[in-house]
């Protein structure tokens, strides 16, 4: 079968997500490290802005955004799919993708830039200029990584929030460790889109970055084993989700955490985007529309308002809204058990499409 090309990097969150998916799905691909030359010659001219991962199909088409890449290839390459077909599992997997993609950015960026900084600067330099000396790489990495290091704070990891972020992350590790002691993947013996969403941060930052990896090995050996299973699936394409649309009880604390931490931010993001759209008719939506408060472990911080997250949420809301009444009743019971009332009653903004790293109004 002709090969795909994945432009990405070992240190990149969303490249990790896509790479693990391609391996599990058995899609042939080669990976090209996104060096400075690749950004200049391939990514920026063909995508229009600097970003990874980017996937080139054997036909020469470029796909950008881990979510679109996985949606497209999962569909194109057929069964077995990473999207459960039963309603509750499908919804839970989608919510966990959203949690991994958008919320775990906070601990992932915090640990990288506040506990692994020099290592990360060198890694950025080595990626950009593989042939340069270590000193040149450190200097280059320091320049190239500046926006990413600053993003940690913009995403919510200002100094007064550090302790809360670490409490929350260690709590999550403990919950996931209990879960993975009993199940190989989130929903049984097969990885779902939720696993790939969580894997981005938990592999590319929290397992690979040295200080974070040591923490994970100390606190959560079963999470480490899951990361390693995801990294090199023992048998690609094998395994099933739990029967009868079962959600393992050990997943409830994780979903409860998601509902508690991320859902209020999504609600406020929707309110702010609706206001912003009314005040800026016809204008392109920026990646961030101001700042808002958020709360973690009882501590209040500030972060940028990210409309993109609402496009991800819309996918979960579509699954919920399409449910038959009996399934919806089961889903509501389950959402009540995880504190998910805000999701049930979510005040959806106008319908959105993805527009690069932001969103646009869906065509009427
Ligand atoms: N939602 C996108 C996010 C891609 C993304 O943020 N990639 C990072 C590297 S892991 C990047 O290139 N960021 C550039 C930027 O934020 O300007 C996806 O799922 O692919």
Summarize the entry for a quick read.
By secondary structure, the chain is α+β, with helices and mostly antiparallel strands. Helices cover 58% and strands 10% of the residues. It folds into 2 domains: 4-76, Glutaredoxin (3-Layer(aba) Sandwich); 79-364, Glutathione S-transferase Yfyf (Class Pi), Chain A, domain 2.
Key descriptive features of the protein:
Glutaredoxin; Glutathione S-transferase Yfyf (Class Pi), Chain A, domain 2; two-stranded antiparallel sheet; 10% strand; binds glutathione
Within the CATH hierarchy, at the fold level, what is the topology of the largest domain? Glutathione S-transferase Yfyf (Class Pi), Chain A, domain 2
- Helix content, binned percent: 55-70%
Strand coverage percent: 5-15%
Shape: globular
Distance between the termini: 39 Å
Low-confidence stretches: none
Characterize the biggest β-sheet: 4 strands, mixed
Q: How many domains make up the coordinates?
A: 2
Radius of gyration: 20 Å
- Strand order, largest beta sheet: 2-1-3-4
Q: How many strand segments? A: 8
H/E element string? EHEHEEHHHHHHHHHHHEEHHHEE
| Associated small molecules | glutathione
Overall mean pLDDT stands at 97
Q: Mind telling me which CATH architecture of the largest domain this is?
A: Up-down Bundle
Number of helices: 16
What structural category arises from helix and sheet content? alpha+beta
């Amino acid at each position: 079968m002709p090969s795909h090309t994945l432009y990405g990097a070992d240190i990149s969150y969303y490249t990790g997500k896509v790479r693990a998916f391609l391996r599990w799905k058995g899609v042939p691909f080669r990976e090209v490290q996104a060096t400075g030359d690749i950004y200049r010659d391939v990514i920026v001219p063909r995508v229009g802005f600097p970003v990874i991962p980017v996937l080139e199909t054997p036909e020469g088409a470029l796909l950008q955004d881990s979510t679109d890449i996985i949606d497209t290839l999962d569909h194109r390459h057929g069964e077995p799919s990473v999207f459960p077909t039963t309603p509750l599992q499908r919804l839970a997997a989608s919510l966990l993708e959203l949690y991994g993609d958008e919320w775990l950015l906070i601990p992932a960026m915090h640990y990288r830039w506040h506990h692994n900084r020099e290592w990360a600067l060198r890694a950025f330099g080595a990626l950009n200029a593989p042939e340069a000396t270590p000193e040149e790489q450190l200097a280059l990495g320091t320049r190239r990584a500046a926006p990413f290091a600053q993003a940690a704070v913009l995403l919510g990891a200002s100094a007064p929030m550090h302790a809360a972020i670490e409490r929350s992350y260690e709590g999550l590790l403990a919950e996931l460790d209990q879960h993975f002691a009993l199940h190989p993947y989130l929903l049984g013996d097969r990885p779902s889109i939720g696993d790939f969403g969580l894997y981005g941060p938990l592999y590319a930052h929290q397992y690979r970055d040295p200080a974070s990896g040591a923490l994970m090995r100390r606190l959560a050996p079963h999470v480490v084993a899951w990361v390693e299973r995801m990294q090199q699936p023992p048998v690609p394409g094998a395994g099933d989700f739990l029967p009868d649309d079962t959600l393992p009880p050990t997943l409830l604390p994780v979903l409860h955490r998601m509902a508690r931490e991320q859902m209020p931010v999504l609600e406020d993001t929707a309110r702010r985007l609706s206001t912003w759209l009314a005040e800026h008719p016809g204008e392109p939506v920026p990646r961030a529309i101001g700042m808002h408060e958020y709360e973690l472990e009882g501590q209040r911080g500030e972060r940028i308002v990210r409309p993109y997250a609402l496009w991800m949420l819309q996918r979960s809301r579509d699954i919920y809204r399409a449910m038959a009444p009996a399934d919806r009743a089961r889903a509501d019971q389950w959402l009540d058990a995880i504190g998910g009332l805000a999701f049930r009653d979510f005040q959806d903004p106008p319908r959105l499409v993805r527009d690069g790293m932001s969103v646009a109004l869906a065509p009427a």
